[in-house]
Amino acid sequence: MAAPQDDMFSFCVEPTKVSNYVEVKFIDKIKGKGLFAKKAIKKGDTIFVERPLVSAQFLWNSLYKYKACEYCLRALETAEDNARRLTGIPGLSLPHPELCSVCPEMHQACPQCQVMYCSIECRQSAADQYHRTLCLGSSQDDPDHPINKLKDAWRSMHYPPETTSIMLMARMVATIKQVPDKGRWQKFFSQFCSRATNEEEEIAHKLLGEKFQGQLTLLRTLFATALYDDQLSRWFTPVGFCSLFSLVGTNGQGIGTSSLSKWVHACDALELTSQQREQLDFFIDQLYKDIEKETGDFLNCEGSGLFLLQSSCNHSCIPNAEASFPNNNFLLHLSAIGDINPGEEICISYLDCCQRDRSRHSRHKILRENYLFVCSCPKCVSQMDELDLTSDEEEGEAEGETEGDDMEDEMTDV
Ligand SMILES: [Zn+2]
Ligand SMILES: [Zn+2]
Questions:
Q1: What is the pLDDT of residues 124-175, one digit of tens each?
Q2: Which UniProt keywords apply (predicted)?
Q3: N or C end: fewer C-beta atoms under 10 angstroms in the chain?
Q4: Same structural domain, 184 and 211
Q5: What is the whole-number distance in angstroms between the Cα of residue 70 and the centre of ligand 2?
């Protein structure tokens, strides 16, 4: 049974305002739910701001010293420290340091395990929701602790898509274990499962692939050793664990935060003489060149989260909305990238800009492998005839692209 509409807005910053603006409607059995405009929305408008039910930084990202708040993923390095690390230039200093929004004096460590938070509020929220269950205390660096074994196993396997994260699953379990209003949270999580059990098995199978069967069993065993709970026994069975996987794999939304990019945006907004502007832009351009040389494209703290309302937003290759994280934390802003009429469906693209310009064939390959569906948006439907005439040459080209994609995936994790 679907929960009342209002529940879908529970994690929005202004739920009442948002519910006057948009609604979630059932479309059909294949597409499931969709998000629709109730009023005219102008290009550039923020449609809603939503925080995730659970989120977690990717394990590789934190291992490689991208420091983020354990709760809200806010980047914890100052823009200057961030720039120094990413360029590998220890003496680098940024102009306009006052535009950096990071406040190291506000940061708080968990007194037991020393993981860092951006504020006392985040530390409290994490402790109340899941951290009391997941805190490793003095075993933080003990490789034999069950949670560390689970993390280690996860890092040693490479699971597509990148948004799938074992720690999201762990935080879901920990949340249900420790919150007083378990029923309410279970209902929230159940909003994400819109598929029949047999279909879920098929998805998990597609997601993990045949060769990962042994690894899946290992993960489930480690997951159960670390987190088993009688009330949640169904999530620890082979079928239940698969469906948890398929839930996180199909609904996980990538989150990226960066104190440096926030500083750059603040610089862009400065009122300067044209000479000062030229100098500052030159400095920033050079900075990004130095970063590219040293670190490549990996600038952000990266993780993923489960967003209740946003998860009802379907994919289109010609989207009218996009998600971003302008607050340097896990708050997702959905904004209109075109005018949207009342009654129109609001869609986002699960692909990035470069991927969107690829052939329909490779777009579908990426979507199928990462999001487990075939796109039927107007752009893809209009190209349907083309696909039927796909030549061997195009197939070859698509294969080549796929190899590139795999490499990109691996690099993103590192
Ligand atoms: Zn925080
Ligand atoms: Zn702790």
A1: 999 999 999 999 999 988 999 999 999 888 888 764 445 568 899 999 999 9
A2: Cytoplasm, Metal-binding, Methyltransferase, S-adenosyl-L-methionine, Transferase, Zinc, Zinc-finger
A3: N
A4: yes
A5: 10
